[in-house]
Design goal:
Length: about 150
């Protein structure tokens, strides 16, 4: 298992992985189609934002990405292949994320996530700081999180 910087040419693989991972939580077809449109990862995105993949046996099974805009840092993506969930890979990826942030002098980051992932993020030490409407389904409320390092 290795964690390495994503190659921009892997944009389609990462988009597909995010879609499969999001679908794991039981969202309907309409939700997933809209998710794919909104969260379609482009090569330029990978070039311009720190994006890391978790590889096992030369297959990408997870990835994360940060957006740094000067004022704040946002965890934009954090996805694991459904077959790898609850096997410790998310923990390894999270540890890498935290180490990356600390090495860059990042003291905290924020993100949003569905309620299905609450147990994992709480275990990682993040805290819920509010709620917001999903941009995919305005009637769906999702958690706003903060991780202080």
């Amino acid at each position: 298992m290795i964690i390495r910087r994503a190659d921009p040419k892997e944009s389609r693989i990462l988009t597909d992985l995010a879609v499969v991972s999001e679908a794991f939580w039981g969202h309907d077809k309409k939700f997933i189609e809209k998710f794919r449109l909104i969260y379609n990862i482009k090569e330029d995105y990978i070039r311009n934002n720190p994006t890391f993949v978790l590889e096992k046996e030369e297959k990408i099974i997870g990835f994360y990405s940060l957006v740094e805009n000067g004022k704040e840092v946002v965890l934009e993506y954090f996805y694991i292949d459904p077959g790898a969930i609850k096997k410790g890979y998310g923990n390894k990826m999270w540890d890498h994320l935290v180490d990356y942030c600390k090495n860059r002098g990042i003291l905290e980051f924020q993100y949003v996530a569905g309620k299905e992932t609450r147990d994992f993020y709480e275990k990682m030490g993040a805290v819920i700081v509010g709620e917001t409407n999903s941009i995919i389904n305005k009637d769906r409320r999702i958690d706003k999180w903060k991780m202080v390092l």
